[in-house]
Amino acid sequence: MKKILLDTNFLTAPFQLDFDIFAELDRLYGYYKLYTLEDAVQEAKSIEEGKYGQLVEKLVENKEVEVMETTGSGEVDDLIVRISEGFTVATNDRELRDRLVKQGCEVVIVRSHNHLEKVNEQSLL
After folding, report:
1. pTM of this prediction?
2. CATH superfamily, region 2-119
3. How far is CA 35 from the centre of its chain?
4. What's the distance, Cα to Cα, between the start and end of the chain in Å?
5. In the prediction, which pLDDT does 123 show?
6. What are the boundaries of each domain within the chain?
7. With 80 as the cut, is the pLDDT of residue 124 above it?
8. Of 109, 62, 57, whose CA–CA distance to 88 is shortest?
């Protein structure tokens, strides 16, 4: 089963995009489990003066996203890079994507504002 780690912008993307990112994840992976970091949830809830706060909480609950406790300090992106092994990371952050690809991690991004695309796809050997 594919483990997909949602970064902050993927927690708010469903409320900003004109397509269903979860239908796209179904198309790309079929069977998967969603994860995120406690710090990413807090960061997403604070965007635009908390505009997405309750929406993000409902999303995490409705999509059964496992929220992992954040350990250590630092930026959310640094934490994601540190724990990314074994995950596909869903992000629209170009700098984070580049760091993850350089590390050999598979990444899912929004492409052309209407679908998701795999970057650095990892095949099961």
Report:
1. 0.93
2. 5'-nuclease (3.40.50.1010)
3. 8
4. 14
5. 58
6. 2-119
7. no
8. 109
